[in-house]
């Protein structure tokens, strides 16, 4: 029942041997124990509009996803390159606009983008860092190449699952960790805090005060907000806990006002300051943007970063890397058709049953068409949307995504996966903990890994490169599927 085929990669041999020696009933028991642990921890997410299950546990798969040190080295270099280019791009579009004058990126995609914030124009941020925390979604194809699927530069979520997955995996399978050198991820909170402190404004004291700002307990990611604040050792605050006086942000405490220097905000731009954005927002801090523009507080991530993770801007990322860094991209983009271009639109309309079509502003697996899995009615409906608003969509081929062995109801079976590494940019360096959040499409044949669409998560192991030519353990069974990883 091990779910491995003859082409199993060397990185998975320890997992293969473990599964070969495991009793299926024991694996089921351990899977239930993992679910119990997550429920006891209280790690949940909300599905808006779902009356039957407002709070859910994201399914956790007990079979880890494995990458080698050399694979991770390539990914790390590519991620560092890409996020460096993203920060250069944001500093430019809110500054001189050279990338637009050079014709690399069309002006309308930036200046007419709903996420572009004119309030940021001309504002100089510490060390020109706009995206302090990035979540870059990576996929791998059957040819073993890595591709960037999406850049998350606003308020990327999921790091709590990365940390909790590792903790639960270590509790359930201490023997596996004893016999395998797996790079740790538990230093992420320390690395994040160091990055945030390094970007405090020049007016901040030597020990800057960092807080994590949440919209409140009703937010779908509130568990993560409280989890991270606890791990970072900082205050978890709502907008009502902060105020602005003479261009400086303060936190209300039992000992009186305390200056705040860095706000790790998990709240969208629109709700940050009712004096600048939505006047009906009760989640933000009146005057926050004035303090921000005065250089007295750092916001992570910066206001207006959404213009960089727009799916239309994504299609220009290889050119953006070349423009700012003078280098070829290490990580490829998924081939993409821009439906705003007439030739691309004609191709997409002619090949809808073969393609994945996404809304430029969509997220969470919503607002997309997976052609090969869609009905004629769904395809016709999307065709009408494309014709009505071609600028609002991109299209991509249905890639042969790699799979990872996954524990399902009747044993081990291949399921499609992606990876979200978390990239931290500070004043001194880019930090990336070895691993990330692996998301898995638990439905057979599904390519959608989002938790809101029935996906689950896995622990992600980065291990030493196996010795070349090491034979599989004796007696390892072969079956119908392959570990692509």
TrEMBL record:
Matches recorded under SUPFAM superfamilies: Glutathione synthetase ATP-binding domain-like
InterPro entries: ATP-dep_Glu-Cys_Ligase-2 (IPR051680), CP_ATPgrasp_2 (IPR025841), UCP005522 (IPR016450)
Ranges of compositional bias, category Low complexity: 473-485
Region annotation (Disordered) ranges: 450-485
Domain of life: Bacteria
Pfam families linked: CP_ATPgrasp_2
Chain ranges of the Circularly permuted ATP-grasp type domain: 64-441
Name the record gives this protein: Circularly permuted ATP-grasp type 2 domain-containing protein
Organism: Pleomorphomonas diazotrophica
């Amino acid at each position: 029942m091990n779910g491995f085929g003859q082409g199993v990669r060397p990185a998975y041999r320890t997992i293969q041997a473990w599964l070969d020696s495991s009793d299926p009933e024991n694996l089921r028991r351990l899977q239930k124990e993992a679910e119990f642990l997550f429920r006891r921890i209280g790690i949940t997410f909300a599905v808006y509009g779902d009356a039957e299950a407002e709070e859910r546990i994201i399914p956790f798969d007990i079979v880890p996803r494995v990458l080698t040190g050399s694979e991770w080295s390539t990914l790390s270099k590519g991620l560092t390159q890409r996020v460096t280019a993203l920060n250069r791009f944001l500093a430019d579009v809110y500054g001189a606009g050279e990338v637009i004058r050079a014709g690399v990126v069309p002006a309308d995609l930036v200046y007419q983008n709903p996420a572009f914030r004119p309030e940021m124009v001309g504002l100089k941020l510490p060390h020109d860092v706009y995206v302090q925390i990035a979540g870059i979604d990576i996929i791998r194809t059957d040819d073993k190449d890595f591709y960037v699927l999406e850049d998350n530069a606003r308020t990327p979520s999921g790091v709590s699952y990365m940390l909790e997955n590792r903790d639960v995996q270590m509790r359930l399978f201490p023997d596996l960790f004893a016999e395998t050198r797996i790079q740790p991820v538990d230093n992420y909170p320390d690395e994040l805090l160091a990055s945030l402190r390094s970007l405090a404004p020049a007016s901040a004291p030597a020990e800057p005060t960092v807080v994590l700002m949440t919209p409140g307990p009703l937010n779908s990611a509130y568990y993560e907000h409280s989890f991270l604040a606890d791990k970072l050792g900082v205050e978890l605050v709502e907008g009502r806990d902060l105020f602005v006086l003479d261009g400086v942000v303060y936190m209300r405490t039992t000992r009186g006002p305390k200056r705040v220097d860095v706000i790790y905000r998990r709240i969208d731009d629109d709700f940050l300051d009712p004096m600048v954005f939505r006047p009906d927002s009760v989640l933000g801090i009146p005057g926050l943007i004035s303090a921000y523009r005065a250089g007295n507080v750092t916001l992570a991530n910066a206001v207006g970063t959404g213009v960089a993770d727009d799916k239309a801007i994504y299609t220009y990322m290889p050119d953006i890397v070349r423009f700012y860094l003078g280098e070829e991209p290490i990580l490829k983009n998924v081939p993409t058709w821009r439906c705003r271009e007439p030739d691309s639109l004609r191709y997409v309309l002619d090949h809808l049953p073969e393609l994945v079509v996404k809304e430029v502003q969509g997220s969470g697996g919503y607002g997309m068409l997976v052609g090969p899995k869609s009905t004629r009615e769904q395809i016709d409906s999307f065709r009408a949307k494309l014709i009505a608003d071609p600028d609002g969509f991109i299209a991509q081929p249905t890639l042969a995504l790699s799979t990872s062995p996954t524990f399902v109801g009747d044993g081990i079976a291949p399921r499609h996966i992606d990876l979200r590494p978390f990239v931290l940019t500070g004043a001194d360096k880019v930090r990336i903990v070895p691993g990330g959040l692996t998301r898995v499409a638990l439905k057979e044949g599904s390519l959608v890994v989002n938790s809101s669409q029935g996906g689950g998560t896995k622990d992600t192991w980065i291990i030493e490169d196996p010795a070349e030519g090491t034979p599989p353990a004796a007696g390892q069974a072969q079956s119908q599927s392959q570990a692509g990883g």
